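Field reference: "sequence" (input) and "structure" (output). Example, Carbon-nitrogen hydrolase:
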Amino acid sequence: MSKKVNIGLVQMSCSADLDANLEKAIAGIREAAAKGAQIVCLQELFRSLYFCDVEDHHNFSLAEAIPGPTTERLGEIARETNTVVIASLFEKRAAGLYHNTTAVLDADGAYLGKYRKMHIPDDPGYYEKFYFTPGDLGYKVFETKYAKIGVLICWDQWYPEPARITSLMGAEILFYPTAIGWDTEETDPNVDEEQYSAWQTIQRSHAIANGVHVVSVNRVGQERGQKFWGGSFVANPHGTLLYLAPHEGEVTHVQEIDLSLTDKYRTTWPYFRDRRIDSYQPITKRYLDE
């Protein structure tokens, strides 16, 4: 039997005005709910500009407690709209201790918990190791009103292990709030195309390998040397694109998915059945050079 759920994606640009960004996100949640969304995912670090393009101690003032004022406000909106809200925030855990964290609010406004980003990049324009301590809560699933969901964050997208573990924990959908873009000084269009293609392909492969829907929500707009490429999407459990957002422009989209397809695809393509878990111990090594 089908088990249909409506997923809302809010792909938006951000400014230096934190309150304006929050209100824009809330407007996106309300718009998605009006279109029938039951679960709404916001992009990574939606409350501010993407500040990790520079190493600046002043940016730590952007962080907040989780739970805190933003989760309380979003909890009110979740309850008002009867939607689950997935919200990526800059968490201040203690003095000098910060995380890149996503909170989940259930449809009744209840705070269900948070996931702290496990994989932290450090690349030109993405100096996240300066700001974020790697997550220490492990991988998480959240039992919401509409589905059991797994949440991972941006750089986690490039690794098969988090998707596998979260799926093995029972996640019916994998959500990836994201902030990724192109270098505005890059002159070779093939580089841009290759980068986006790889980003989309690796996440669609998580859907295939684990037999779950994957939802990736990215930001748009140009911010200090980065042109965030949007391209948010929803893939079914065999990697087929159900929805693909444009690279330009803000979009609020609602996509119906059928969670019963997980059983169909896992039965037809029984990757879980054929896993050789007795042979996977080497994966716990950094590199097999001995």
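The chain has a mean pLDDT of 97.
The radius of gyration is 18 Å.
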